[in-house]
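Quick one:
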Amino acid sequence: MRNALLRIHGIFTRGAIACALLLFATGSHAAEVSGSGLTLGPPDSKNVLILHASNSVQVFKGVLEDFSQLNPGIRLEYTELSTQQLYGDTIDRARANPTALHGPDLIISSAMDLQTKLVNDGYARVHVSPETRALPAWANWRDEVFSIGTDPIVMVYNTGKLAATRVPHTRRELLSLLQAPDQPLANRISTYDVQGSGIGYLAATQDTRLDSMAGALLAAFGRNGVTIHESTEDALDKLERGDVTLAYNLLESYTRHRIDQGAPLAIIYPQDYTLMLSRSAIIPKQAPRADLGALLLDYLLSPRGQEMLAKQSGMRRVNASVVPAAGVRPMALGVGLLVYLDPLKKRHFLDLWRAAILPPQGSARPADPVALPR
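Output:
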């Protein structure tokens, strides 16, 4: 193709070159990228694979292109959705028409608790293959939900806004920084809006389960005028602009991608513990082409797929996710993730979170630690 373009350059004007490039770009196997979607493969293919995922299009694009090159006869239609929408849409489709085969053929989400609940409530298909059988026990639950890679949950700060000597390396150090007399993080710290973010809710409830200081930290966030972000990308935008100095509970992979692009950011792996969540995949029970969903899933779990995921999206390979020396272990898929999805427990947690982070207008932020449900 490069030689063809050079020949074109010798014949056509600059405007004609642009037209020629457009023709190349709209070929049968070209990627068609929209704001929240990606289409690959021949437009007239009868084999259409529909993928819905929370993965950023730009971060996931290289992986899907590799799959498309291996399977040139398949048309892949990818839509990026929030974790809550992925979960809600699956239930809504089933309630609207429980017997129809419609919707996506594979769902990938970083809200592994919501994926596990879909399995528990009967919305997923069983899939068994050499690739799924090779997974460690924590990465495969009931042969219906699978980890395709892991992502540490980290703290991130703007290196131009916080001196290296003051960077917190544990949650206790972060609490001390929030309580410092000079208030270096007042109105300069951000955390997930757990009301609308599946990842944020999962990380916050796991903090509550693992850390007796979670309530004190939440109260300190409130006293420091914490801002809330809807996604890791949203938080990274605020950090890169300098709107905030430090963000709590972000995805490592997206942060690495931003740092590689030159953002003045640095990652903190909390030394007390570092949560490691899974990007988990299910084949919905109503998948029109469950066979194609299984094909993509097996590719993602294959050695080649795992290599591509690590290189292109920054996720960690499933078989390289346990780092005992650093206190890093992935959260296991299974019923343990469902505890904080109990409606009463969830409502109680969110009420306490709102009281600490979003107090009613004119009221004081809590001075004492929040007694979160364990």
